[in-house]
Amino acid sequence: MENTYLFYDLETTGLNKCFDQIIQFAAIRTDKNFNELEKYNFKLALRDDIIMSPEAVLVHRISPLSLKEGLNEYEAVLKIHEIINVPGTISLGYNTLGFDDEFLRFSFYRNLLNPYSHQFKNNCFRMDIFPMAVFYYLFEEDIIKWPFKKDGGGVSLKLENLSLLNNLTKGQAHDALADVEATLNLARIFSRNKKVWEYLVDFFVKKSDQKRSESIDEIFQSQSGIHRMGLFVDSKTGADLNFIAPFLNIGKSIPYKNQSLWLRLDDKNIEECMDNIEEKTFVVRKKYGEPPFILPAYDRFLSKMNFKQKKIMEKNIEYLKSHTSEFNEIVNYHTNYRYPQIEGVDPDAMLYERGFLSEKEMAKCRSFHKKKFEDKIDMIDDFKELEKRQAKRILFRNYNIEGFENIESEKKKYFKSLNGSSRIVDYLGNARLTPGEILSRIEELLAQKTDNEDRNLLNDLKKDIFLKFNQ
User: Fold this and answer.
1) Hey, where are the domains in the chain?
2) What percent of the chain has pLDDT over 90?
């Protein structure tokens, strides 16, 4: 089947993918030559249980009072899931693998949809223009103009700055459709160098990415296996280090089979880390088909590293080669590491704890989506306990449930917890903010802001909280 690109962007009520909500979805589908085929742009009605983050409101400039109309979250997420799962879809955007993709994953999960199908099923996969921009800046610098920070802090790779300097779109930054148009035009420019574009696309193909990593030259062997050194091109390394750093492959995670483990070699002397391996050694848990990009340690790539990085790298390699017991201690700690277990994780946040649903369970979810409201209620008891709670939340968040006592009681209990009767936490242990805590943050911002538009947006948010929670 013929692949298509789906350039997309989300605007959301905040940064917590478990507890925040999509409020705008925009996308442009193109063929492989970037010719537009379809365009989507719609806003969602704000759920009654959602309070927008004050910081998010000040970025995207969307007042909560303007989101009374539109598709409810359930209808919208069903629509997005259908769009992004069209066979052959390559979904991509600017930093989508750093934010939007996981936000979608949790949105799909809490609405009883397959959260992973767009990553692999029916010839679908994902890309991200942001890590590609890092590579182009390093190795194809002349392809566009690059904005630099006024404080001398190096290049800025923010989409809004790239867009302004290169006239990528005429729309307002942080409007979802404008950001999609800017990203699409940036991709059109990058793809003019077809050889580099196709080379980078292969980093997002799981098998190709894995094959490249495993073909990198080994630098030594230990009782743990073969150890290869690769250069990670990654925005997280920072502009001051040219976004590039050396890492040593130390094996695979034992509890998490999809993670390849890479030990950083240039940020500190590893000999000085042995008293606290957990906190002082830095390992990237790489998943194939996702950033960062791993390059072989060829001279043309090593030349992008500074002198200090290279010296620390060389010293660490010699230390690890000659101190086998210490190296094995590092390997054993990181390969056996398990994420901490968080108690009391909210059902909205249990995507990774739940694991994969069976095909029989997914078929039950598909049947639920097709039924009318009253029939959905009748079906709730067919689900297991977690999915039963999710189904009830779908109903009271998106429909009028008056007269259905079992759903109404669940809603009352849930809203009581939102007000702080018990702390709601995500899978990382982060607590959902209460209405009172958000009001305190709004007052802090109002004391700092003098711009009338900023103040109006914050006051709209206060009003929305009082209307929903009687604060």
Assistant:
1) 4-195, 208-336, 347-421, 435-469
2) 91
What's the topology of domain 208-336? PX Domain (3.30.1520)
DSSP bridge partners of 228? 218
Residue 121: HSE in the Cβ half-sphere, 13 Å Cα cutoff? 10
User: How many Å apart are CA 360 and CA 146, to the nearest integer?
Assistant: 51
Residue 132: the pLDDT is 98
- Laid out side by side, the sheet with 125-126 consists of 36-43, 22-30, 4-12, 89-92, 125-126
Nearest to 186 by CA among 236, 233, 136, 232: 136
Q: What is the mean pLDDT of residues 380-395?
A: 94
CATH of domain 4-195: 3.30.420.10
More confident residue, 174 or 235: 235
| Residue 102, both tokens | 């996981």
Residue with tokens 């991200």: 128
Q: Does 410 have pLDDT greater than 60?
A: yes
Ranges of H-type helices in 38-175: 54-60, 73-84, 101-110, 117-120, 129-139, 159-166
Beta bridge partners of 286: 260
Residue 110's CB: how many other CB atoms inside 10 A? 25
